[in-house]
Amino acid sequence: ERSSFREPRETENRKRLMNMEESETHNKFQNALDHADTSKIRQCLHAGFQTNGVMKNRWDHLVDFAKDLKYISPQYGMKKLTALRERIRLEKLVQGLLRMLAVEQNSTNKQGSKELYGVAKASGIFYKTVAIHNGKFYSIYDGITEYAIGKAVSKPITGHKKSGIFVHKNVAQALQATFPQDSALLYKRRVILKVKASGMVRQYGKKLAFEAIKPISVVCELPRSQRSVIKTLALNSSVAVKYKALLRKNC
């Protein structure tokens, strides 16, 4: 008599994996893993879903399937599959950044001055890259100054080159912001804040230093650094290519 209970997920996944092993997809998948080729890995996973009747074109299913493979098939290499899941996560994050940048770059900051030499007065909407520490937003450089949403922060403009509060004219510049190696929160997670800046202002290259800013909202969360994104994403990934092109364009 046929059993009426559903087979455990592990058994179903084993059958799914066996089907892949009997097909050309398995060989392609193994080769893609060996070469850490994210785009081909994703293609193989899609092919595996199509073969086994699983829902297609869904990132959450790709991640679940990668977890299943790690659990029931150690021969694929746990480190490689962990890296795959991290790449999928980063690709989602960077894709979101690219979409957001496309919108932000179409808008112009009419209130801000493009040419500011010496000290002048100005105001407008700008962007600032900050660190997340214990659930709050802090200056990456000093690790002390807190930037709470809705609360104004001030720092006088003096003759010192680090006086004032640094902001960027657009999201693209904030995305590629660099900081000194001795910065207190250099390796913390980062976010880009939309801020209203006002008062005295001085320009340093592409950056502007205002004497007062008021954080309005969080624009997006960033990977830990540009280098970590480029290193973690597959070099031939279409997302990585777009990300690197964006950085070159805005350098």
Secondary-structure blueprint:
Layout: H1 9-21, H2 24-34, H3 38-52, H4 59-72, H5 78-106, E1 119-133, E2 136-138, E3 153-154, E4 165-167, H6 171-175, E5 190-204, E6 207-222, H7 226-232, H8 238-249
Care to describe what's here?
The structure is a single chain. With 251 residues, this protein is an alpha+beta fold. It has two domains: 9-76, no CATH class; 111-228, no CATH class. It has eight helices and six strands; from the N terminus they run H-H-H-H-H-E-E-E-E-H-E-E-H-H. It has helices at 9-21, 24-34, 38-52, 59-72, 78-106, 171-175, 226-232, 238-249, and strands spanning 119-133, 136-138, 153-154, 165-167, 190-204, 207-222. Strands 1, 2, 3, 4, 5 and 6 form a six-stranded antiparallel beta sheet that branches. The chain is globular, with a radius of gyration of 24 Å. The relative contact order is 0.13. The model is unreliable at 1-6, 48-63, 69-76 and 105-117 (pLDDT under 50).
Overview features:
251 residues; 2 domains; 8 helices; alpha+beta; globular; six-stranded antiparallel sheet
Identify low-pLDDT runs: 1-6, 48-63, 69-76, 105-117
Mean pLDDT level: 66
The number of distinct structural domains comes to: 2
Q: What is the 3D form? A: globular
Summarize the main sheet: 6 strands, antiparallel
Helix content: 40-55%
Q: What structural category characterises the helix and strand content?
A: alpha+beta
Query: How much of the residues is beta strand, in percent?
Result: 15-25%
Radius of gyration: 24 Å
**Run of helices and strands:** HHHHHEEEEHEEHH
Gap from first CA to last CA: 70 Å
Number of strands: 6
Give the count of helical stretches: 8
